[in-house]
Amino acid sequence: MAKVFTLEEVSKHNSNKDCWLIINGKVFDVTKFLEDHPGGDDVLISSTGKDATDDFEDVGHSTTARAMMDEYYVGDIDVNTIPKKVKYTPPKQPYYNQDKTSDFIIRILQFLVPLVILGLAVAVRFYTKSESS
After folding, report:
1. Model pTM greater than 0.90?
2. Residue 23: which residues within 8 A CB-CB, separation 6 or more?
3. Do 20 and 27 contact (CB within 8 A), yes or no?
4. Alpha-carbon span 115 to 94, nearest angstrom
């Protein structure tokens, strides 16, 4: 029967001298493989202390790479110690008025602009009429 580790126990193995990963519910001691890993040791070390299954699957490892994992297997992970993944939901946004002007200002402008135009028209008419007389 395989040994069962907690996430806390596996998280302690997070250096280039002692590196353990959790992939598909299994614990692997990949310390000896760090120098041989095609992506470099930083990739493996950055995946310690968490469930690295998504990181592993996103890369698309070959069947040969998956077969190599057996020699680094040290036990299973207690799945109750791994935090559940929470789906991100964005916060509700308050209603946003894009034009950023209040209705009150718009109503005032709708009233004043025609009055200003009318006033200018009357002033021009009055000015031009008094000069021609």
Report:
1. no
2. 51, 52, 53, 56, 69
3. yes
4. 37
